[in-house]
Amino acid sequence: MSERTCHCYGCGRNQGVESSDLPCLTLQGWYIVSHLKGPEDIKRYGFCSLTCLQRWVNENTPSIPEIFFSSLDDF
Questions:
Q1: Which top-rank group of organisms is this from (predicted)?
Q2: According to the model, what pLDDT value does residue 54 have?
């Protein structure tokens, strides 16, 4: 019986972790990212692959507006 579940924030996959298993063995190959939002406020995200991690980063990172790049041509 799985007592804990790790959720992939990229594709939605869930990986159960048995209470008798070490998470580092069950989640081998996964990427765990910690986001320090403030004092004692840590958000953790799990990703089952680099592809899922890259997708999440692309969706959650503000992009530079194209007009900024085109204005560099004027210099």
A1: Bacteria
A2: 95
* Residues of the chain scoring pLDDT < 70: 1-2, 74-75
- Do 53 and 65 meet the contact criterion of CB atoms below 8 Å apart? no
What's the CA gap between 55 and 71, in Å, rounded?
Answer: 28
pTM of the model: 0.69
What is the chain's Cα-based Rg?
18
For residue 64, how many other CB atoms are within 10 A of its CB?
8
What domain range is 56 assigned to? 2-72
Distances in whole angstroms, Cα of residue 6 to Cα of each of 9, 62, 71? 9, 26, 44
Helix, strand, coil percent values for the chain (each to nearest 5): 30, 35, 35
